[in-house]
Amino acid sequence: MTGPMPLDLATLRQAPKALLHDHLDGGLRPATVLELARDCNYDQLPAADAAGLARWFREAADSGSLERYLETFTHTVAVMQTPEGLHRVARECVEDLADDGVVYAEVRFAPEQHLEQDLTLDEVVEHALAGFAAGEAAAAAAGQPIVVRCLLTAMRHAARSREIAELAVRFRDRGVCGFDIAGAEAGYPPTRHLDAFEYMRVNNAHFTIHAGEAFGLPSIHEALAFCGCDRLGHGVRIVDDIEVAGDIADARLGRLAQYVRDTRVPLELCPSSNVQTGAVPSLDKHPFDLLARLRFRVTVNTDNRLMSDTSMSREMLKLHQTFGYGWTDLERFTINAMKSAFIPFPERLRIIDDIIKPGYAVLLG
């Protein structure tokens, strides 16, 4: 055909996508939650059927509070305490992402939250990585090849971050590509975990930090200036350091915003989730478009596909409908993400040059 293909959910699923911010325990299939709960005798689920459970997760996550949003993970983590549960959730995660056209993904989870059945941290990671590998194999066999790497997350309110950082380095040649801290930001600044970040830097290892979501500029400043992170998990509140009185060309960037843009710090923006947690009031007021037009390195992400009832294709469709983005814009955001991935430079180039650019060339006609 000549000319660009229509931009809708069906064609968006054909577009090659790169995903940097997706939580394993936030992307389970509702039916899987039910089945795993039955297998492990977990009887605390708030609904007894898949449709009702999916609806409960979505509605519970729509509270406008990060703390209440995080409460929904009680149920998903509860059914991910066994080798079988971890393997299945990881495998299905990869299959679902590949089915949505994702060609590269970094999926994160907190091993310390999966020890209730006496698994060791190493065993937790091994079972999850085996599930990811099985998912990659199944996706390749279905003609939907995908590369998936894992980020190991430490909970910022706990005291195991150095231990998890060591775990990430120990498994970095086996499918783990980096480290992260997550959880409620208020009261738990990233500088509480300096020893973990120092360990990552000493070992030339990558890490991102959840910062600038529920808490503002101080969180971002600490993550960059004191912790030295490679990327900002969300980072949406960097907009607090930008003044736009009239035309965007006259926007005034504060020192922190200027530094983030100048040094090309990737922003792992999650539009739907940012609205749900109250980081932004509504999608049309999301600073994604402002940041994109100011040429920050913005990327599109899902965060938690179950809680937000979303996918990469749906997130891109919402951005198209809200801000009018076309295929060229979506290609730029995808390449932004791939440039920022925690895998070796030649692998990033291969996916950009051999998969992403040819895929968008077809969509652009």
Automatic annotation (TrEMBL):
Adenosine deaminase domain span: 16-357
Cofactor binding remark: Binds 1 zinc ion per subunit.
Keyword Zinc: yes
Active site (UniProt): E213 (proton donor)
Record GO terms (molecular function): adenosine deaminase activity; zinc ion binding
Broad class of enzyme this protein falls into: hydrolase
Pfam families the record matches: A_deaminase (PF00962)
Residue positions binding Zn(2+): H21, H23, H210, D303
Catalytic activity: 2'-deoxyadenosine + H2O + H(+) = 2'-deoxyinosine + NH4(+); adenosine + H2O + H(+) = inosine + NH4(+)
Protein's GO biological process: adenosine catabolic process; hypoxanthine salvage; inosine biosynthetic process; nucleotide metabolic process; purine ribonucleoside monophosphate biosynthetic process
Top-level taxon in the UniProt lineage: Bacteria
GO cellular component, as recorded: cytosol
Site (Important for catalytic activity): H234
Annotated residues for binding of substrate: H23, D25, G183
NCBIfam families associated with the record: aden_deam, PRK09358.1-2
Function: Catalyzes the hydrolytic deamination of adenosine and 2-deoxyadenosine.
PANTHER family (alphabetical): ADENOSINE DEAMINASE (PTHR11409)
Similarity section: Belongs to the metallo-dependent hydrolases superfamily. Adenosine and AMP deaminases family. Adenosine deaminase subfamily.
Protein name, entry field: Adenosine deaminase
